[in-house]
Design goal:
- 34% of the residues lie in helices and 17% in strands.
- Helix 11 links the parallel strand 15 and strand 16.
- 51% of the residues are buried.
- It folds into two domains: 166 residues, Rossmann fold, CATH 3.40.50.1260; 196 residues, Rossmann fold, CATH 3.40.50.1260.
- It has 14 helices and 17 strands.
- The chain starts with 15 loop residues before the first strand and ends with a helix.
- The chain is elongated, with a radius of gyration of 23 Å.
- The strands form four sheets. Strands 5-6-4-1-7-8 form a six-stranded parallel sheet, with helices on both faces. The chain has a six-stranded parallel sheet with strand order 11-10-9-15-16-17, sandwiched between helices. A three-stranded antiparallel sheet has the order 13-12-14.
- The chain has 391 residues and is α/β, with parallel strands linked by helices.
- The structure holds adenosine-5'-diphosphate and magnesium ion (MG).
- The site of adenosine-5'-diphosphate has 19 residues, from strand 14 and helix 12.
Length: 391
């Protein structure tokens, strides 16, 4: 892949830049709850603000449905961005109507792109109106790179090379994930967990063709258990995904790679306030209980395999880690990754929360800011926003 870098932008001095960022942060009652994505956008913004004549930042936030909705306003992001940047940030209440005058060195923050239906529809007319005031375009929103939306697809297509670039975050994400996708150093071990097989079918199918071992955990392991003819009691399962699980098991067997399911599991009668919690072998799950975590034998087996890896990709917790009693499996994987010499990449909303909870963020080579985008990247499929930047 040949992402155009910021350094290759031509005539940036005096230019006006539209910077597509991922400022899709959690907001409650007008307050930003987590500023991770805001902080991640700073290097690119600083670089642009020091060089360009004017910079406007744009993003989507939440599931706005094509019309203004105060619950999804980016207004609460402005003061957080301003203090993080140490430069003035002026909020613009409609992304299509920036002020006629730009102030060099200060930032405009445009209101939620998804307040217009053209954003999700990838409408070229909307993209043309959005980009009209700007001589340059920069995309640093890796978290949205897997979607063909107007601000990341139609918009960059209308700029020639030299006038568009990937920001530093986009560059870092693509570099780290490429190292995992293109010719990873072996042994390459993937750990995949989380609630469901259905949200990760394509990545599972792609990974099984590239890894030397695939470690499965979380709720999705239950569907694999069903595929092996085991009983899973009251566990979360996806009956319609049993065939998919069977196909992944068959592909692993055919390629001769290790596909590991937890040999033992933690079971409980309820997620909250359980009366019964036990560790059982995977072929002895009681009919009245549900699987909530991988067991201690599985933990040490997974740790052992991760210790020998040279490349690791992890997506999805091993259990209901939000409940302290069911977090051991997820924390064991987090710690194993932190301790390992492997090049390690973690993607996924909850997985990233778990490595924060484990306090090991600094020991992981790359923590992706894009859950869905990193999973899509792993499949090796074309990312619309990246293709548009390269066009
Ligand atoms: P990520 O965001 O990292 O991609 P997912 O969204 O796929 O992960 O899944 C995360 C969720 O899966 C967590 O909220 C966790 O509680 C849930 N989960 C993990 N294991 C189980 C299980 N055994 N039963 C039910 N839910 C589970
Ligand atoms: Mg999630």
């Amino acid at each position: 892949m040949n992402l155009p870098p910021l350094d290759d932008l031509e005539d940036i001095a005096g230019g006006r830049v539209l910077a597509r960022l991922d400022l899709n942060v959690p907001v409650r009652d007008g307050e930003v709850l987590d500023d991770t994505r805001i902080i991640a956008a700073l290097p690119t913004l600083r670089w642009l603000l020091e060089r360009a004549g004017g910079v406007a930042a744009c993003s989507h936030l939440g599931k706005a449905a094509g019309e203004p909705d105060v619950a999804f306003s980016l207004a609460p992001v402005a003061p957080v961005l301003e203090s993080a940047l140490g430069r003035p940030v002026r909020f613009v209440p409609d992304c299509l109507t920036p002020p006629a005058e730009f102030v060099t060195g200060s930032l405009l923050l445009l209101e939620n792109l998804r307040f217009h239906p053209g954003e999700k529809a990838n409408d070229p007319g909307f993209a043309a109106r959005l980009t009209k005031p700007y001589s340059h375009y920069v995309n640093d929103a890796f978290g949205t790179a897997h979607r063909a939306h107007a601000s990341v697809e139609a918009a960059p297509r209308s700029y020639p090379q030299g006038r568009k670039a990937a920001g530093f975050l986009m560059e870092r994400e693509v570099a780290a994930l490429s190292r995992v996708v293109d010719d990873p150093e072996q042994p390459f071990v993937a750990v995949v967990g989380g609630a469901k097989v259905s949200t990760k079918t394509a990545p599972l199918e792609a990974l099984v063709g590239r890894v030397s071992a695939l470690l499965i955990g979380g709720g999705m392991a239950n569907t694999f258990f069903l595929a092996q003819g085991l009983e899973v009691g009251r566990s979360l399962v996806e009956g319609e995904m049993v065939e998919t699980a069977r196909a992944v098991l068959a592909a692993a067997a055919k390629r001769g790679i290790e596909l590991l399911l937890p040999e033992d599991v933690v079971v409980a009668d309820a997620i909250d306030d359980p009366q019964r919690v036990a560790v059982v072998a995977r072929d002895a799950i009681p009919s009245d209980l549900m699987v909530v975590d991988i067991g201690p034998a599985a933990r040490s087996r997974y740790r052992e395999i991760l210790a020998g890896a040279r490349t690791v990709f992890w997506n999805g917790p091993m259990g209901v880690f939000e409940v302290a009693d069911y977090a051991a499996g997820t924390l064991a994987v987090a710690e194993a990754l932190a301790a390992s010499a492997a090049f390690s990449v973690v993607g996924g909303g909850e997985s990233v929360m778990a490595i924060r909870q484990a306090g090991v963020v600094d020991s992981i080579d790359h923590v992706s800011t894009g859950g869905g985008a990193s999973l899509k990247f792993i499949t090796g499929e074309t990312m619309p926003a990246i293709a548009a930047l390269e066009s």
